[in-house]
Amino acid sequence: MGIEGAAESVAVRWARHGVSVIDHPLVQHKLTLMRVKETPTVEFRRLLREISMLLCYEATRDLELTATTIETPLTTMQAPVLAGKKLVFASILRAGNGLLEGMLDLVPSARVAHVGLYRDPKTLTAVEYYFKAPEDMHERRVIVLDPMLATANSAVAAVDRLKERGASDLRFVCLLAAPEGIERLRSNHPDVPIVTAAVDEGLNSHGYIVPGLGDAGDRMFGTK
Ligand code: URA
Fold this sequence. Notes:
- With 224 residues, this protein is an alpha/beta fold.
- The protein has a single domain, classed as Rossmann fold.
- 37% of the residues lie in helices and 29% in strands.
- It is built from seven helices and 14 strands.
- The strands form four sheets. A seven-stranded mixed beta sheet has the order 1-11-9-7-4-5-6, sandwiched between helices. Strands 8-10-12 form a three-stranded parallel beta sheet.
- β2 (65-71) and β3 form a beta hairpin.
- The longest helix is centred in the N-terminal third of the chain and has 19 residues, at 41-59.
- Uracil is lined by residues 95, 148, 150, 208-209, 212, 215-217.
- Pfam families: UPRTase.
- Pathway: Pyrimidine metabolism; UMP biosynthesis via salvage pathway; UMP from uracil: step 1/1.
- Catalyzes the conversion of uracil and 5-phospho-alpha-D-ribose 1-diphosphate (PRPP) to UMP and diphosphate.
């Protein structure tokens, strides 16, 4: 079986668990470049922005449309426009911001929420230090952003907090997911579908995704 066939069966398998694996060749190619340890910060950021647009495309695939009457230079027609809920992109700081820019390129009118969580290096649990979100979360589709779904401690804490604020229609978008993180997020929040570019083998003893791409925040911001 060629690499396309293998990727397709991964996507089909994970779809049964509420996970959309975006096996589009452009996404897979760009992700490979991001994994390479020599890829410099400037390139890493550019690739992340590009991939995030493609992930956004998938995460918004089921947005509702309504028909409106418009006039083209030739005639009048009924044409589709977005209807229903407006969007909020909820960035889990700081790495979530790397996905945010590409999302806003595609949906510039979306609101943005920020959830500041850091991972306690000893316990790997999520500790909140910042939270700011629009008031009308209950009326919006919320797309939660974090490039790496590893232990899912941050993801679960962020979704808990967003639901507390009234959100009830959520998606989780990441670049890479570990099976452990998927299992944890889906068991805590089975109503939240996951969109990712790949599902990797698993976590190492430090909670890093393997083979992964390292620390996404460090790689996008050039820190160590
Ligand atoms: N966060 C990262 O940035 N990378 C990982 O591999 C896991 C969590």
